[in-house]
Amino acid sequence: MITIKSPREVETMAAAGQIVAETLLLVGRHARPGISTAELDDLAEEFIGSHPGARPSFKGLYDFPKSLCTSINNEVVHGIPSRERVLEEGDILSVDCGVCLDGLHADSATTLAIGNVSDEAQRLMLITREALEAGLAAAKADNRVGDIGYAVQQVVEAAGFNVVRELVGHGIGTSFHEGPQVPNYGKPKRGARLTKGMTIAIEPMVNIGGPEIHTLGDKWTVVTRDGTLSAHFEHTVVILDDGNQILTVAPAATPA
Ligand code: MG
Ligand code: MG
């Protein structure tokens, strides 16, 4: 179902989004060789819980056991934080975080370089970030979800990479996943129409190699089928008449 949010609901989602953004910054400051993904998850869970009315969206969502998704290198999304997964120099780490504040969700993801990473990994992260920017630029009232997917896909394929097709962005609000689906591929002027007050998560997942993925035996971790690196960047936005407002941003004055 596609829902239109009131200004008051958007305000709450922006407050949730601020916590998400600050959580990702916190994780980014601690993500270095030698730390486990479970330690990062502990930091995130404690930080989110320190805000009255806030909880991690992911914990318990479809029975997911942790507060963050942490996906390393060839892992695309939905990696489960673990004491056994210790970050190494040269890894790339995708961190996905959702926060529910007073019943409304916000969702954002980023991919971090752990120490010095290869030129190829750096380029993948750059292109995926640019693909998100292109998708954001197409997210405005009277455009359609196909315009977003097309914009993302153009950037990614021009760089010689591929978008994951089986996993998509989504509407978000009182439910973490609402309509419409927001694929990272598509045709201009196709799909659901965007209208003022819709809130959606735009989230390109980009593979250096082929677009194919599969899910590991833990039933969660999604990896690239060919073992190549994958990156993931995501923001939650509210659609406005002349563009959108990103809700998952930290206030400018966030202390380092
Ligand atoms: Mg997410
Ligand atoms: Mg999402």
CATH topology: Creatine Amidinohydrolase
Radius of gyration: 17 Å
Number of domains: 1
Return the CATH architecture: Alpha-Beta Complex
Shape: globular
- CATH homologous superfamily annotation: Creatinase/methionine aminopeptidase superfamily
Mean pLDDT score = 97
Based on secondary structure, the structural category is alpha+beta
Q: What helical percentage do the residues reach? A: 25-40%
Number of helices: 4
Largest sheet: 5 strands, antiparallel
**Order of strands in the sheet with most strands:** 8-7-9-14-15
Elements, N to C (H/E): HHEEEEEHHEEEEEEEEEE
Bound molecules: magnesium ion
Count of DSSP E strands?
Answer: 15
What does this 3D model show about the protein?
There is one protein chain. The chain is 27% helix and 26% strand. The protein has helices at residues 7-30, 37-49, 119-137, 145-158; strands at 54-56, 68-72, 75-77, 92-101, 104-113, 162-163, 169-171, 178-182, 199-202, 205-207, 213-215, 222-224, 230-232, 235-240, 243-246. The strands form four sheets. A five-stranded antiparallel β-sheet has the order 8-7-9-14-15. A hairpin with a 2-residue loop joins strand 4 and strand 5 (104-113). Helix 1 (7-30) runs antiparallel to helix 2 and helix 3 (119-137) packs antiparallel against helix 4. It is globular, with a radius of gyration of 17 Å. It binds magnesium ion (MG) (2 copies). One magnesium ion (MG) is lined by residues 107, 170, 201, 203, 234.
